Amino acid sequence: MVGVGPEGLDSAAARVTLCNWAEEVILDTFVKVPVEVTDYRTFVSGIEAKDLKGDKAMPLHEVKEIVQKTLHGKILIGHALENDLKALQITHPWHDTRDSAVYPPFMQEVPDLEDSGKICLRPRKLKELVKDRLGNDIQELGKAHDPVEDALSALRLYKMERLQWEQFVVQKVAAAKVQEPSQYARELIPPAPFNQNHQVNPMNMFMGMGMHSPPNHYQSRNFHPRNRAYSAHHHHQSYGGTETWYGGYNQGWARHRSF
Fold first, then answer.
1. Global pTM?
2. Which of 81, 79, 87, 84 is nearest to 106 (CA)?
3. 238 vs 254: CA distance, rounded Å
4. Is 25 exposed, middle or buried (0-12, 13-18, 19+ CB in 10 A)?
5. pLDDT tens track for 155-197
6. Torsion angle (degrees, nearest 10) of CA 116, 121, 122, 126
7. Eight-class DSSP state of 235
8. 78 DSSP β-pair partners
9. Total Cβ atoms within 10 A of residue 160
């Protein structure tokens, strides 16, 4: 992202990257910023003024359309996705979002400043998570961040934790259905037994996103997925007449129902 507005404190999307399950880059483009850029943040983003001009960059509305069509009905994986989605001016269903910044096992426990007897969860930097969980070094000091590397790192974090993560999401969806028994609850599909024999193409089920987010955007807070302002409609695909849960994203934990 680049900085816009007074002193460049607000963020705008200037480069967008999408990768699939096979870790292939399917979109990597600079984005024409529709307002004046006041801080290119080149030392972090690697972006210069020339990158956002001419044929190298796509208009924001075209990038938004491509991203929305690509992500429709898929699991979105990344780090600090709230920032990325806000910069792109789009939303994604919270129950189809896997954000390593706000997945509780990846977060850091810190004392609550208002109540010393309580513990809050604080997001960790992607660089720290990747070093701790994967043993890899990314975002080296003095070098611009690589959004492809960031997207793939978030994806690999998800892959190593996918079964536990999907169980966590199942629990949160069930809790949300109980807490919100209105239109939101009616939109969610209750789980059915796992069918080991049903196969799914994982490349059609999710995307990893990489963008440059400004530092320290997230504030310490108690985690709850409904803090995330995403719409809550569910996607459906036909697979021969029964609703099934798939376990893991080489076979899923995604719900599908045919009508």
1. 0.72
2. 79
3. 13
4. middle
5. 999 999 999 999 999 999 999 877 655 544 444 444 433 343 4
6. 150
7. -
8. 99
9. 11
